[in-house]
Specification:
Order of helices and strands: EHHHEEHEEHHEHEEEEEHEHEHH
Number of domains: 2
Strand order of the largest sheet: 5-4-3-6-7-12
Strand content: 15-25%
Number of strands: 13
CATH superfamily of the largest domain: von Willebrand factor, type A domain
Oligomer: single chain
Shape: elongated
Length: about 350
């Protein structure tokens, strides 16, 4: 099982709080009523059955709220081949997750800024297939080409420096892994978006970019960070990373990213250190990547997770409706009127 919006599960912690407050208010009302009404009259106005009804209603409401929280998180399990009609491009988003991307010269840091902007880019895909690849010393494909943007967002949400093997940053391997994720038969519609601070400690990126050019796949490089340089947080966010007693510094190396873009007939776009409406990845996508030819509508088979929120939503609605039906006013209104009539007589 997986959840499309796992943060909704945090609502589960609020359910017992609601229960405790509701129960406290109910018992306080009972105590106040006992001080105002004589014991003999209480038995007639508040018989045992309505009290039992309250606890049934109490359990039903809390159960309904719990099930609603699970339904809101959109649980999915089981996979099924589905026919998908697509008309668009194929884009591999290669995201640098090396520790230098934790530098805070971009708020809150380079990696989180890139993730936020990729979320913005996803909104602009509109039928284009996208894949997500994280890289450090090696590239790791976290999400294959898909139009299932919910799955893509979930994969992106979990990205961290641990999403790819540790080691010296290798932009060349990232490009080669991105090329492997793209079908050579569709190279006319393929593109790579590489987001990095440009630090390439292994070399080989230009050769890999030349291979992309041979397949007519442009690489759009996005530089993130400050050219003046800054420190890198240490392991566990303790202090700064050091080498032989000296703080390690990282800076945006735009020359490398520009060379990769030029070698692949792509384009280098600096994301900058401050976000504006013109430097978000969504804006970059609209201006540049959509110039790539769009493939005509085609039927494809994608293996997708199946939505299972209905298994929680329908029981939740039934529980809440049952709780409403068990309300004191609906169940006990006639009985109370009869009792009041008997008291008057």
């Amino acid at each position: 099982m997986r959840f499309v919006y796992p943060w909704f599960l945090l609502l589960l912690s609020a359910v017992p709080v609601v229960g405790v407050i509701w129960l406290w208010l109910y018992r306080r009302a009972q105590r106040r009523l006992s001080l105002l009404i004589a014991p003999a009259l209480q038995e007639k106005l508040m018989p045992a059955q309505p009290k039992a009804t309250f606890y049934i209603q109490f359990v039903l409401v809390l159960t309904g709220l719990t099930l609603l929280a699970f339904a809101a998180a959109r649980p999915q399990w089981g996979r099924k081949d589905e026919k998908v009609f697509t008309r668009g491009r194929n884009l591999v988003i290669a995201l640098d997750v090396s520790r230098s991307m934790l530098a805070a010269d971009v708020h809150p840091n380079r990696l989180e800024r890139a993730k936020t902007d990729i979320m913005d880019l996803i909104e602009d895909l509109k039928g284009d297939r996208a894949a997500l690849l994280a890289f450090r010393s090696k590239g790791s494909l976290l999400c294959p080409l898909t139009t299932d943007y919910s799955f893509l967002r979930q994969a992106l949400d979990g990205v961290s420096p641990e999403s790819a093997p540790r080691g010296e940053t290798d932009l060349g391997d990232a490009i080669r892994k991105a090329l492997e994720a793209l079908d050579p038969a569709l190279d006319e519609y393929n593109a790579i978006l590489l987001i990095s601070d440009g630090e390439d400690l292994k070399g080989g990126a230009i050769e890999a970019a030349a291979d992309a050019a041979k397949r007519n796949i442009p690489i759009f490089t996005v530089g993130i960070g400050d050219e003046s340089g800054t420190t890198i947080p240490g392991e566990g966010d303790k202090g700064v990373q050091q080498f032989k007693g000296t703080a390690v510094k990282t800076k945006l190396v735009k020359e490398t990213l520009s060379a990769i873009a030029a070698a692949s007939n792509g384009r280098y776009i600096p994301l900058g250190t401050a976000g504006t409406a013109h430097t978000t990845l969504g804006a970059i996508y609209r201006r540049h990547l959509r110039q790539i030819a769009a493939k005509e509508q085609q039927e494809q088979i994608e293996n997708r997770y199946q939505e299972r929120y209905q298994a929680f939503l329908f029981p939740a609605v039934l529980c809440l409706l049952a709780a409403a039906w068990f309300s004191r006013g609906r169940l006990c209104g006639n009985r109370t009127r009869k009792q009041e009539s008997g008291i008057r007589n």
